[in-house]
Model the fold of this input.
Amino acid sequence: MSDVYVKHRALMVKIARNFTSDNADIGDIISESCVALIKHIDSLRDMEEKPLRSYVAVTTKSKAIDLCRKKQREQAKIKPLTDDVIEQTPDPLVIEQKISLQSEIDSVKQALQALPEKERETLRMRFFEEMEVRQIAEVMGITENAVYRYIMFGRQHLKAMLYGGSEDQ
Done:
């Protein structure tokens, strides 16, 4: 469990910070997550890195949402429920969607960094800088057909890294 904690602590803190800035609450979220993970340690030992990282992230999100709901219930006991209070209460589903999206973005960034340089650069210029294939060919000093090939191979490699399976899919 200590290896899982050391490898994924930063991820757990990042997810917890999306829910609260209170260091004590962040500590509680991480502690509760570790307790939940320990219960499944035998399964975790056999997991590969990507599924393990996802499992840790989902567990941490779940514990963070639990803490938010607990705090909301405590707040409800203190303040009468008025329309103002209800409007100010963050929706856990929206927060969960933001965390999930951020996790997906992080995965894509990591996968892009793992691509060979020419594939990464052609994808960056084509899809992030919205350059035409002709312009990319000029900048890189290669043919337009080569640009198309780098884009095709880059997309195949990204798909394989992000979704698993063979790169021929």
Q: What stands out?
A: Residues 1-114 form one domain.
